[in-house]
Amino acid sequence: MLGTKLKTVISLVAVMSIAGTVSAYASTPSVSPKDLKSKVAVTLIKADQKPATVQDQIDKLYAGLKPGQVIAYYVKDPKLNPSDQISFAGKGFVFQKYNDYVAKAKKVNAPLLAKPATLPKGYTFKAGFLYPQNPDRTSALYKKLDQELKEQAAQGKKTLFTKPLEVVEESSAVLTFVKNKAEMSVVATFVKPSESIGGTPVPGSNPDQKTETLGINGIECTYTTELQGRDHLDWTDSANKVHYSILAKNAKTDVISLAKSMVKK
């Protein structure tokens, strides 16, 4: 995955260098004020101009997206994209009213997250979100985009190749609840069929995680304590093929309390 947005910081040394350049032009008697302004501007532009990185280009594309829009992109660079896969960037919808969220969720084929009738003490509804879900790697849409973008890359000399998605298969849903400075999020995502990777699966381990199995309303759930990031409780509704997560930092009791009002056998 490419890095996060890069930020350019103009140092005091750079400012002093620019000031020195201006002084040099100002001390030259053969340069008119008009020419001086033009030459200084050109000098500053040349000093500041840097080729846009691939991440800069992706960030610019993302900034131009409207809610619900998604682009697929392919980076033709083995160092930046060692897995040689296409990627996606999408912008979601934000709703301050729960009823608005429900109405939109039905239109974009998202798992419908019902607002719990009872919340852990002190929590109130903050916002609802709907995020375009990336096409599954086994889907016809993914394979079509993969082929088209790589065909473009084979004929082009650029590094980044993009294509807007006309159809997003479905969306994931998020509800957030707050209590003072604490925030708890509920995420619902459609379960995708697992892609065969061959060989014997090897259980992964993460030293920054501690997991435990909990039984809630007859359903097996997994609670994960994260040393870095928010803890989360996960379970799957196999009948409806929806995976749920409740995320919060250092609020295990509240998370389990909320889960008890949501988990159904």
From TrEMBL:
It comes from the Bacteria. Keywords: Signal. Residues 1-26 form the signal peptide. This is DUF4367 domain-containing protein. It comes from Paenibacillus dendrobii.
